[in-house]
Design brief:
Layout lengths: L2 E7 L2 E6 L4 E6 L6 E6 L12 E8 L3 E3 L2 E12 L2 E11 L8 E6 L8
Antiparallel strand pairs: 1-2, 2-3, 3-9, 4-8, 5-7, 6-7, 7-8
Amino acid sequence: KTISDIKLEDNALSITVEGGLTVKIYDAGQDCCERRYMSTDDDLNYFIGSKLREVAVKDGPGCSDQFGIHEIQFLEVLTSEGSFQCANHNEHNGYYGGFVIKAEVSIPGKEDPA
């Protein structure tokens, strides 16, 4: 399907394709004593009009700093115009960790995500 809109807001990536179907991808992990967020350096608007091919999650490097541990997991989206990445970050004290990447599908005319 052709991508009609892409947004990264409220720490979630939303991809809408022709016909209005939207996939929202986010980290639903525990949010206690940690800081979770999603970021990208890529120009998402460049990929509007391309064909959505694949979405994959890839582990990134972890590192320690003066505050604790900073984990990163990449969300790679492959399109007909190439790929872009979003990075999920989890900064924590070492007790909590990991990611719970979820995808919700919204279909026009249906109230609940499928």
